[in-house]
Every structure is written in structure tokens, then in C-alpha cells.
Amino acid sequence: MSLEIIEIILRSIYVSGTATLLSAVWSLPLGLTIGVKNFYGKRFVKGVFNAFLGMPTVVLGLVLFLLIRHAGPFGFLNLMFTPLAIIVGQAVLITPIMVSFITSAVESIDSDIRDLAKTLGATEIQASLAVLKEATGGTLLAFIASFNRAIAEMGIAYMVGGSIPGFTMVLTTAIALQRDMANIELGLTLAAILLSIVFAINLTLNLIQKRKP
Amino acid sequence: MRPIIKLEDVTKNYADATALDHVSLKVKQGEIFTIAGPNGSGKTTMLRIMALIDTPTSGEVHFNSVKIGEENRSQIRSKCTMVFQKTALFNTTVYKNIAYGLKLRRFSKKEIDERVKDVLDLVKLNGYEKRLAKKLSGGEQQRISLARALVLDTELLLLDEPTANLDPKNMSIIEETVSRVNRERKNTVVMATHNLFQAETITKRAALLLGGKIVEVGTAQEIFRTPSRHLASFARLENVFSGVSRSLKEGTSLIDVGDGVEIEAALRKSGKISVFVRPEDIILSRKPISSSARNVFKGRIVEVSDLKSVVKLRVDAGKQFVVQITKRSFNEMQLNVRSEVFLTFKASSVHVI
Prior knowledge:
Chain A has helices at about 5-35, 40-50, 55-70, 85-110, 110-120, 125-135, 135-150, 155-160, 170-180, 185-210. Chain A is mainly α. Chain A starts with a helix and ends with a helix. The chains are: A mainly alpha, B alpha+beta.
């Protein structure tokens, strides 16, 4: 396998992995809050996140493009055609998945756990962490499903990443490029690699679900 | 003695119902206090407010004479703990379940190990540290919940129906443990129950809660031995008879309860009346016994139910009476269904409802 291909694989994993972690920064507290708190409009909020689960990546890519292009409101950040642009885009893309998965994982935990932690001396934050800990299986599921969606998407990577060889080219955009260059053999190899990654992740996901009592 | 917890005119409203309706109550330091009442009377809500995990809609809660507010709630909350009726466990080992509260209180690993071991001995589950809590039986799970609360040695221990749905063995382990920690460590215990027998055996003072209101407070003796209409409205009283009473010149009354049965009661009341006799106050014998007791009836056993240490018998003596005797007496007297027996009880064992 050429060094170039290995680089593309590693970049894909790095970009989508970072996007997953970045998204977790806001998705975890968001999902936890929606899961444990009862507030007015809770069903509406959950509905909105569910609706965005199937967001077409190319639409989001276009919106992001308009925002970060030189003339756009965030043009001054000089994000256009950088790995960071893809990371941010993918993090936004997977937010609905993460929030929805974490919300339902937290909701599936006995509501008593929160009260239980509090009667044993936990503060509000410690009690929420206890709930999250109980929801570990579902939370892992959220991470894996999110990473999966991120690494398999192309719209954002293409629109704001630009698929620059050696800089922003990831597996999906590389496959598309091989097709454009009629390099079917390499395209198939890359496709096989992407599929292996996705399958491996799905396998892990299944194992985790099986282990859940 | 000063109260450890005091509720002052506490009301708790939920969206569609009032769970507690202007409740005031003081629980003294070091006592075992029972809140008795039927399901839905507000017992759990009251405990949750005392545990400081729910806030009253109106009214005040004082803990050790300190008024509870937003600013001190979570700090004071660590001085009490609660065991829920529905067993709640963290999905991990017994050890980690019990250690949770100690870790929050920053105990050292060594101290935690020791305390967990001691408390498991106390609830008779020694050696269970590494077991998965959720794989244990219902009774064992409830004992783990109790252990997890006891290990914290808090000033106040709140128990919500701690023995509901448990078998007699698990039930007695929990009762013994609660009595023991109260006796030895002087922890105050507030227990909600609809099991009056339990309330009477392990507590000194009690309150009767009906429809979110406290209808009676007093010693367990006062409340459970002289049952009122309130108590009768939810407690499963046996040997309840209604009839017409007429006063006798001896100062007692004779109540005609129908089917040729007349019960003499140590009270002066005439007219329509409802009375009851406790199953354990009735003496059962093969032959008539000579005693001062005013009520003697001859009947036949129609039903026998074995309740581990005691046997409950249903005796037809014109009216049906439920009698409770020890298993030993039952065996010694060689009783069985259709045995002919005599029932004897004092006029003073007849209580008006």
C-alpha cells in the first residue's frame, strides 16, 4: 500500500475522530440535560434533533461553504479548505445523532438513579454524572454511530475541504477523485478500505449492544 | 429532646394532585418514627421532602433547627439518606454500589474497604463485594440498598416501605438491622409503611397519613392499639362485627352481632356499633377454660393458614373468627380443619371502631 493511501486513511480517521470528540463537547451535556430534565417543549426539542438525523451532507456542506468563504460572515477565520473546516462541519453534522442517542440512553436509565445518587450525598452535577455512567453503553453507541456517519460522508469534506491531495483529501473524496480520473482499481481499493472501517465499527457496535445486560 | 427534622405547614402540589396538604410534624432525635397510611396517602412524598430531594410547594423544612433553603440544601442533604421502596441499584458490583456515598465523602480506600465489609456483615451478605448487584435476588438487592444507606452512618435514615414485597426471612433481617443501628448508633429512623404490624413492633411513635393529611400522631400504642375510624379505613382489620349494643348494669355492653352471637364489650354504648377483636387476643382451647374472660364461644375450625412461626385459624362459631396461635401450640393441640374448639376473650379486648 502506498504511503499516500495510508496518509489518506489516517487523515480520515483523524478528521472524523476529532469531529466526534468535538461534537461530544456540546452533545454530551445537551443530551444529558434533555434526558434527565423535564421542561416545557421537551418533546419539540427532541423532535427537532430527530428531524435533523437525516440531514443531507451536501446541504450542510453548502451552508458551511457560504458561511466560511472569504466573503462570508466567518470568512475572517480563514477556515476554507482546511482539515479544521471538515472537522467543524462533521461535528455539526453528527450533533443530532449524538444528542438523540444520548438522550434516549439517559432516558432508558431508571429515573431513580438520579434521586438515588442525591440521597447518597451527590450534588446535582455528580448525580447527572452517575446517570451518564449508567448510560455508558448507550453513550458509546452514540460515539460509534456518529463516527461512522462522519467518516462515511462526502458532502462536507468536498464542499469545505476541497479534497486537496496531501492536505484535506479523505477516503470518500479520494474515491470520487479516482472515479473522475478513471482509476477504477485504486477507487475500488479505497472503497474496500472505507467499507472495512465502517464494518469494523459496526461489528464493535453490535458487540457492545450484546454486552448490554 | 430537640427535633432532628421538622415540617411546618408543608404542602406539595403536583400538576394534577395535592400529595401533601398542610402537614406539620416533628421527628425527635434518636427515635424510630413510622408514617403509616394506605398507598397514595403521601408517605413517599413526605419522605422525599425530608430527604431534601423534593421541595415543598409551600411550608418549611427544618433540619436540626436549620431552615432548609436553596443555599444549604445539597450540603445538608448529605446528613440524611433514603432507601426507596422500589430498589434502585447502580449497574455494577455490590462493593461499588455501597462505596458510592463514601467516595463522595472522600473516605480513603482502606476506610471504604473496612466499612463495606462491616455493613455487609450487618445485613448478612458478607463476601458479596464482587457480585453484580443487579444479579441478586429481590430481597438481597433491598438489603444492599439498606447497606448502602447504613454505611454512611447519617443522622437521619429514611425508609420507604423497606420490606414491601419481601419474604419473611429478608423482612426480618431488614427489621433487625434497622432496630439495631437505631439502638447502637442512635441514628434517627423515619419509616413509611402500610404494614401496621411492623409499625407497632419496631417503632415508638407514629403518624397516620390519609389523603395527604396527618390525621393522628402519637405513640404506636395509642395509634395502633386503639384503632380509630381513620385506621380502619385502610388497615385490614380482622374480626370486625357490627350489631346493636345494649348496656348491661355491670357497666359493660352486650352486642348482638347476629347469627346467635352476642359479644360482651367493656364499654358503655348502646345502639348500632362496629367492633373488632385482634386475632392474637383470642385464646383457643380444646375444652372450655375457667377464666374471668366474659366471652366464650364454641366453634369448629374451617380454615388453617400457615404463616411460618404462627398459624392463623378461621373458626366458625356462628360468626367466623380469625384466631392466631403459635405453630407449637397448633401441633401440641393436634388441631386440624373440623376440630372442635373453644374461643375465649376478655370484654376489654373488644375495641370500637
